[in-house]
Amino acid sequence: METTLLTNKENLIENNVSHELDSLFKPKAIAIIGASSKELSIGNVIIKNLVHYGFTGKIYPINPKEPEIRGIKAYPTIFDVPDDIDLAHVIIPSKFVPQIIEDCGKKGIKSVIINSAGFSEMGEEGMALQNAFLANAKKYGVRIFGPNCQGIINCDPEYNAYCDFTFTFPKPGSISIAALSGGVGAFIMQSLFDLNVGMRMYASNGNACDISLPEVVNYYGEDEGTKAIILYTEGFHNPKEFMDVAKIVSKKKPILAMKAGRTEEGAKAAASHTGSLAGVDIATELIFEKTGILSFNNEEEMCQAAMAFSTQPIPKGNRVGIITNTGGPAVIATDELVSAGMQIPALSERAKNILKETMLPEATIGNPIDVVATGGGKHFRSALDVLMEEETIDSIYINFVTAPFTDTDDVARNIVEVNQLKRKPIICNFMTNMSLERFQVTSKILQDGGVPCYGFPTTAAKALGVLYKYHVLQSRNIGEPTQFGDVNKVSTENILLNAKKENKEFLNSSQVYNILSNYKIPIADYRIVNNINDAISAAEAIGFPIVLKAESESLVHKSDAGGVVVNIKNAKELSESIEKMEKKFAVDDLQFLIQKFLPGGRELIAGVSIKKDLGHLILFGLGGIYVEVLKDVVFKIAQVTELEATEMLTSIKGFKLLDGIRGQDGVDKQSIVNIIQRISQLVTDFPEIQEMDLNPIIGFKDKVIAVDARIKI
Amino acid sequence: METTLLTNKENLIENNVSHELDSLFKPKAIAIIGASSKELSIGNVIIKNLVHYGFTGKIYPINPKEPEIRGIKAYPTIFDVPDDIDLAHVIIPSKFVPQIIEDCGKKGIKSVIINSAGFSEMGEEGMALQNAFLANAKKYGVRIFGPNCQGIINCDPEYNAYCDFTFTFPKPGSISIAALSGGVGAFIMQSLFDLNVGMRMYASNGNACDISLPEVVNYYGEDEGTKAIILYTEGFHNPKEFMDVAKIVSKKKPILAMKAGRTEEGAKAAASHTGSLAGVDIATELIFEKTGILSFNNEEEMCQAAMAFSTQPIPKGNRVGIITNTGGPAVIATDELVSAGMQIPALSERAKNILKETMLPEATIGNPIDVVATGGGKHFRSALDVLMEEETIDSIYINFVTAPFTDTDDVARNIVEVNQLKRKPIICNFMTNMSLERFQVTSKILQDGGVPCYGFPTTAAKALGVLYKYHVLQSRNIGEPTQFGDVNKVSTENILLNAKKENKEFLNSSQVYNILSNYKIPIADYRIVNNINDAISAAEAIGFPIVLKAESESLVHKSDAGGVVVNIKNAKELSESIEKMEKKFAVDDLQFLIQKFLPGGRELIAGVSIKKDLGHLILFGLGGIYVEVLKDVVFKIAQVTELEATEMLTSIKGFKLLDGIRGQDGVDKQSIVNIIQRISQLVTDFPEIQEMDLNPIIGFKDKVIAVDARIKI
Question: Are A404 and A301 in a shared domain?
Fold first, then answer.
């Protein structure tokens, strides 16, 4: 559905130049093509919003009949506008849009927001119109936002560019929002507004036919005024483009993201087959994971976390100091903080000695520090100062219940003073009765002082947990994929070329095993032979016991059909088995695979499946019933680095089995890490590989060896 | 720490008579002993609160010096009060409290709230004072609430009894709160107030030395005005008493509960040993599960769910109809509803035909029904009417974004009209800009009309999910424990008596196996013998192959010490093994256990551990590495019913293994269900059993047999 000006965008990302979008987000003169005097029409509301929000540039309503709209001089066409225009809204019937884009190009307009609908979302005819205006846009270098979209908002007071028909007017701040769904984008904006969190920029780009979500994210990434990015999507047009951008941006600032539509696809993920284990939803989570994005299933929690990011620094570790003036909520907060992977370390003797001097006698000196309900501003202040000095504390959580008998404003002022030093992040669970005016004052002191305030201990603790999670993501350097130099790419290419020539879907054993050998993926020693005598020689060369497998293009499920015999101990057993197979499978191309039998060891599985637009997913897990019953497998998007391959091992539930347990041997983990990386390199070198299974791989203490494999192209 | 008037309470619960607490919750005349003219002192604030909240009864400040307090005539002592008093607050130093309780008894006061601190929480001296006033209370039949507590509130306009020093004044409603921690209780009350949810009763009983949390819950259960109960606790003084009450009350109305302190104890649960697998936190969750309580880890979600219960009926099933006027939030809601186990079924042809007539042309006729942003009151109304008639719809979820170009009040009025019929529960995600007055009006229409409104789709969907979960809990009848009549209690009693006489901690094999036989728990055929000849005879009687185990009081870890030999196939092997053991274990009491060897089958584990104050926990799981690495076990509190035993089987992750997989046989599940129930009966009959392990139990297609067992008394 999407037609993109790829060349432009690729340059953009590569050169890290994004000023091209300045005409969209930082316009100096805006034409509203399709301006209307009709109240509540989009062509009227946008002008109203621009004026209401105090747009600092010029507004040119374009309307063939009206001399002025909302008191602003209107022009019949853009060519009648005497000045330069950098941005145009287009709100006219879709059939006129291609011509208007041509006009915009001629007028030198750099960006156009097409609010009108009636394009790719409306079938073939609409698609043709979309392609037509895109061709004109390309001709003149005009960038298109939309169509069928809300628009953008830039809250920077230098611009106050409210190029949107929504009806929330955010205060300027540091959170920027990108949303494909305008409905969700608008209510996220509203939610931040309700939380008194300032916004930086907003973009909801509908069909996203040219300027893409990744481009917007990239722009936000380079915008110094944006401290954190909120992203809402129901899918990715081009996951690879998104990943390229996201992995760069997420290192610079947190991206908080939510993808809806997770359950329908989650169902697909339940299927037990390797290929179908990886549903779309898994892929989204994998994209978020690989690129260091903070993933949410709950948009309320996402907005609450954004509030914390908007004012607080990122903690340097997981150690929290808790200050409370009430008992129970500190217990609740501790539960949640610990659940989020954080610690509540004991205080140093130095700290305790200071607190013994400064706290009320009934206070509890520890972590949490309970300043008690009668504690006032100076008690909170001392606790805050002490925690700021503690080397073993990375962030501060406060429970502040407004007891009527304390000077709550003084408490608030002290919290604010320490908060404004921004040495360590501070989160406040502020429990009060906002229907009382005196506590509204206290609340305002905290809010104006940039203290993120929540109404529940769990909610506040969760927000701090997200700050910490970003610290973890930022600290995680997955590195670059290892490029193994000892692989034989040429031979592999030839094998695949031959297979393609033969129109094969599945490679035969010889081809599969040769490819694995080419990529130094260990496979149990094998020979392919045509008769009993050769089989016996092969078995003797390999050494008994062996496994015998019947080989033929016509044999698909050879194990079910009796085409596999394991643990053959001598030549006699081998002869008998071959004779039986020859009788059973009366096919011309029957061959026999003689393979070393490897008893014992731990059954493992590795594999690859392909995900449209995303590329290969690499799978690793425990084999046998573990994969079938317990689904103890993990996926990552190729290419995987050594760190990622290692994470795959450690993130399966049965990880301890790899270390050995109950007197059983562990397995050679470094070899598994190598195999995973080599598989990743193989499918990256040969994207035509659609599916690949190493099932099982047998893990021993000192080696890991695949004993069966399958490749589909 | 707790001293309870158990006799009273037991009668109470048994006879379901709770009017004894009427003097506490429905007082007609209240004395404030320790009334004070000092502003912000508790003895002043309580009088202020009673007056402010419009207490309908009489208030008698008791103060030896003041003639009046806050304009109300005061009395030097309670004996000077001319009228009857049913409730007294006590706010005097702890040392005077025992005498005052005696006085209260003499005056005929039925309940006393002791706000004062300085009792059991302060060590021995305080404990002595507490025991002293409790003795006096018992003498006169005075019931004590507290000490060291906030008090109670009854918002019923017939009473308006604000017997508490908190500072939130709830509107009357149907949610009652019980909280051991006053801090958390107060902020939950405040949170409901902020959500505009009315409250019925409130109780925060501090040390809870007499009137217990379960008694309060029982009282709420019988109070017709209470529709739902919120419970906050950090632990249970007497879990059994709580369970007895909770399982009755939870059938009548939902109990929403949160227990803080879950993580510290969660750590204990991580230990891999059977006995230590069941930490305190597991126990709380088990209590909640067994008694049908809605458990929360997040107090904000608990309050939001309470809002739904306060006005909505319970859905009769899991099928949701969605009405939306915006796309994205319906996707988000669907995700959450499905995650909560609900379905979004297709609409009937009848419904679709009606909607085709009544909806705007651009509306989407389906489930969700998208009435689109321009949809007005009549469109919402038609959608609501249709869903109310749909037999396949049990509840209704609404996304209502207030588009400025629609008559949002009319939409709200239509939702309210349908809501007030209360035929099916309705939940509304109301997305608006509350800083605009017109939408405040819309919001008020919804609120006054009893429509639970949330600000986020996930939040609203979660609340509906909890309503549904209560339906599930209410529908779940665990039944009564099976009493197997074929057990031999007398023999078991004798075995245990002998073991006690011998001061044994662990029973010997003969004792263990005899007890299992007494309770018809199948154990692999065995004999205990003293020498090789008897061993061979025994083995021949049982049939080779057999297992040989050395038996001696001094042998604890016999398997590690080489005291177990499996798969002995003939008399020769047996003789050799016994000779080896005789050499290795040169102890006087050496005997030999000859047991049938059972190869193959699925390794299972069952066991019992004891939890202080709670009784026995029954464990079931997959044995071997499943229990050690994957912790695939489940616990229930004894006694378990047949349904619960069956649930134990189906709730392990590897449940499919019991059905058989990959050509392997399944196991005889009914036999496992029986074994679990028989273990439960055994430890219920003999509470002196501290620990018991059947490890492993081997499961076959047609039988399930324990092959090793251990009992600790």
Answer: no
Domain count within chain A: 4
Nearest to A454 by CA among A191, A194, A188, A195: A195
Distance CA B615, CA A375 (A): 42
Q: What is the mean pLDDT of residues A304-313?
A: 97
Q: How confident is the model at residue B259 (pLDDT cuts 50, 70, 90)?
A: confident
B665 within a domain of the structure (yes/no): yes
Interface touch A334/B459, C-beta < 8 Å: no
Q: What ipTM was assigned to the predicted interfaces of this complex?
A: 0.88
Cα angle, residue A618 at apex, residues A617 and A620 outer, rounded to 5° = 140
Asked whether the beta carbons of B489 and B514 are under 8 A apart, the reply is no
CA B348/CA A407 separation, integer angstroms: 62
- Residue A218: name the closest of A255, A259, A257 by CA: A255
pLDDT over 80 (residue A16): no
What is the model's pLDDT at position A278? 36
DSSP state of B223: -
Tokens for A295?
A: 């993933």
Beta carbons within 8 Å of B70's beta carbon, 6+ residues apart = B37, B44, B47, B48, B51, B61
CATH number at residue B329: 3.40.50.261
Q: Which residues of A touch B435 (CB under 8 A)?
A: 193
Q: Which amino acid is at B33?
A: I
B207 and B228 within one domain: yes
B256: how many CB neighbours lie within 10 A of its CB? 25
**A14 lies in the same domain as A95:** yes
A129, A170, A452, A622 from A198: Cα distances, Å: 38, 6, 12, 48
Give the pairing of strands A633-637 and A615-622: antiparallel
Q: Is the separation of the CB atoms in A318 and A332 below 8 Å?
A: no
Query: pLDDT digit string (tens) for B405-460?
Result: 899 999 999 999 999 999 999 999 999 998 899 999 999 999 999 999 999 999 99
pLDDT at A521 over 60: yes
* Of the candidate ranges A122-136, A142-156, A182-196, A582-596, the one whose mean pLDDT is the lowest: A582-596
Is the previous residue joined to A677 through a cis bond, with omega within 30 degrees of 0?
no
Cα B82 versus chain centre, distance: 46
Residue reference for tokens 């307009």: A109
Measure the CA–CA gap between A463 and A305, rounded to whole angstroms. Answer: 5
Model-wide pTM > 0.80: yes
Mutate to test the interface with B, among A52, A149, A331, A439 (most CBs of B within 10 A): A331
Question: A191 vs B456: CB contact, 8 Å cut-off?
Answer: yes
pLDDT, tens digit, 9 for 90 and up, residues A395-407? 999 999 998 889 9
The whole-angstrom separation of Cα B457 and Cα A132 is 38
User: Whole-angstrom Cα distance, residue B551 to residue B538?
Assistant: 15
**Residue A657 to residue B300, Cβ atoms within 8 A:** no
> Do B401 and A339 count as a contact with CB atoms less than 8 A apart?
no
Spatial distance between the Cα atoms of A604 and A621, rounded to a whole number of angstroms: 6
In this structure, the strands spanning B58-62 and B29-33 are parallel
Distance from CA of B373 to the nearest CA of A (A): 10
Domain-ending residue, one of B307, B342, B376: B307
pLDDT at residue A486 in the model: 96
Contact between B46 and B96 (Cβ < 8 Å):
no
- Supply A248's token pair: 């760069």
Q: Are A517 and A563 in contact (CB under 8 A)?
A: no
Nearest residue to B518 (alpha-carbon basis) of B275, B689, B696, B695:
B689
Please check the confidence at residue B16 and state whether its pLDDT lies above 70: no
Listed by number, the residues of chain B in 402-461 with a beta carbon closer than 8 Å to a beta carbon of chain A are: 404-405, 431-436, 455-459
Give the residue numbers spanning the domain of B625. 602-712
Closest residue on chain B to A188 (Cα):
B456
Q: Is there a domain that residue B410 lies in? A: yes
